[in-house]
């Protein structure tokens, strides 16, 4: 089975008051297609740094990140932007929808940035909104949506460009238990159905049974316990 996300010996250091501080220390991770991995850890453990490096937003001090077989190392800002647009889908804690765009327009904007044919983009947007149970909400603005609906739009938007890897950063933090489970169930289903690799950073124990693996970030490394 293909690993669509691979982190090899990732180390990240920062200067802090004249001292060098190691946040990630020889961290390794492989996520196979169709697999949803949860990453947990206390505040200050390096989860945000880990997610930024895995998502091609921050380059590691040492090590390599490969997204669908392609390394992020040595690429310039424009190349990294293109890589994130083509290979990565982000789902954030607060959905981060654009307030003045309707549901369907949120997806179409992503497709436009990627240069997707408009007719093809409209078909894909319709398919994704249908899968997410949002067909009747396509012309609604974010303020008219429930928290669960906003997160479902965020999932659809993240999938719009058919990325290899999905990253979810605390996607249930602003939702009640049932809506949180619904959202993670949808993420897990899309990962399985479409052969994505996915990583979810979470503090929510309730959704862990929906994940294939649960890893803990301790002392700059990922462990199973």
Task: Spell out the blueprint of helices and strands.
Elements: E1 3-16, E2 19-32, E3 35-40, H1 47-54, E4 62-67, E5 70-71, H2 77-87, E6 88-91, H3 103-113, H4 118-131, H5 147-159, E7 165-169, H6 177-194, E8 197-201, E9 213-218, E10 221-223
Helix pairs in contact: 3-4, 3-5, 5-6
Q: Which class best fits the helix and strand makeup?
A: alpha/beta
Taking all Cα atoms into account, the compactness measure Rg is 17 Å
Major sheet, described briefly?
6 strands, mixed
Strand content: 25-35%
Across the major sheet, the strand order is: 6-7-8-3-9-10
Domains, number: 1
In the CATH hierarchy, the third-tier topology is known as Rossmann fold
Question: Could you give me the name of the CATH homologous superfamily?
Answer: P-loop containing nucleotide triphosphate hydrolases
The CATH architecture name reads 3-Layer(aba) Sandwich
Contiguous uncertain segments of 5+ residues: none
Distance between the termini: 24 Å
Shape: globular
The CATH C-level class name: Alpha Beta
- The helix tally amounts to 6
Average pLDDT value?
93
Residue share in helix: 25-40%
GO cellular component, one term: membrane protein complex
Subcellular location: Cell membrane
Protein name: Putative hemin import ATP-binding protein HrtA
Subunit structure: The complex is composed of two ATP-binding proteins (HrtA), two transmembrane proteins (HrtB) and a solute-binding protein.
């Amino acid at each position: 089975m293909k690993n669509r996300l691979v982190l090899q010996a990732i180390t990240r250091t920062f200067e802090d008051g004249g001292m060098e501080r190691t946040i990630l220390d020889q961290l390794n991770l492989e996520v196979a297609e169709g697999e949803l991995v949860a990453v947990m850890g206390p505040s200050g453990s390096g989860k945000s740094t880990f997610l930024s490096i895995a998502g091609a937003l921050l380059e590691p001090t040492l090590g390599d990140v490969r997204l669908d077989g392609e390394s992020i190392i040595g690429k310039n800002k424009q190349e990294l932007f293109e890589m994130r647009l083509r290979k990565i889908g982000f789902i954030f804690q607060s959905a981060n929808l654009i307030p003045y765009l309707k549901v369907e327009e949120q997806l179409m904007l992503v497709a436009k940035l990627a240069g997707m044919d408009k007719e093809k983009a409209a078909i894909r947007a319709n398919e994704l909104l249908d899968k997410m149970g949002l067909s009747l909400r396509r012309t609604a603005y974010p303020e008219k949506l429930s928290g669960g609906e906003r997160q479902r739009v965020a999932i659809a938007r993240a999938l719009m460009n058919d990325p290899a890897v999905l990253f979810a950063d605390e996607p249930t933090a602003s939702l009640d238990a049932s809506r949180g489970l619904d959202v993670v169930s949808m993420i897990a289903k899309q990962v399985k159905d479409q052969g994505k690799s996915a990583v979810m950073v979470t503090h929510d124990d309730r959704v862990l049974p929906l994940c294939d693996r649960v890893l803990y970030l301790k002392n700059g490394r990922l462990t199973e316990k």
